[in-house]
Design goal:
By secondary structure, the protein is of the alpha+beta class. The chain has helices spanning 3-10, 14-22, 45-52, 97-112, and strands at residues 55-58, 65-71, 79-85, 88-94.
Length: 117
């Protein structure tokens, strides 16, 4: 995961994350950063970590909606991955449309057993 994304998730600067990574800050282990948690149980560790980075909003009704990329035609780098799984609307901003589409494919294959080509 890019340092910028980690910094955004924890609400700190990218430089702070870099200092933690290199051991310059918090190297003694006294301070702990609470890792983001997925809103529901996911067996695949990589998928669980990825879903934990999504913005989560609890839905009232228990519907499922495959993931898709919503594009802003005015600003090509303004893409949003959105889907509804296990009572949660999950969304994540993504700047690269190609990677976003690839990720949507993986998410739909994992959660819905779909391969949308």
């Amino acid at each position: 995961m890019p340092l910028r994304r980690i910094a955004w998730v924890f609400g700190v600067s990218e430089m702070q994350i870099n200092r933690i990574k290199t051991g310059e800050n918090w190297g003694n282990g006294k301070r702990k950063i609470k890792a983001p948690v997925a809103p529901f149980e996911i067996k695949d560790g990589r998928m669980r970590k990825y879903i934990a980075t999504f913005d989560k909003k609890k839905t009232v009704i228990k519907i499922k909606k495959p993931f898709m990329v919503k594009r802003n035609s005015d600003k090509p780098t303004d893409n949003l991955i959105v889907g509804i799984v296990n009572g949660y609307k999950l969304s994540l901003k993504h700047t690269n449309i190609t990677r976003a589409k690839r990720m949507v494919e993986k998410l739909n294959k994992y959660f819905f057993n779909l391969n949308l080509d």
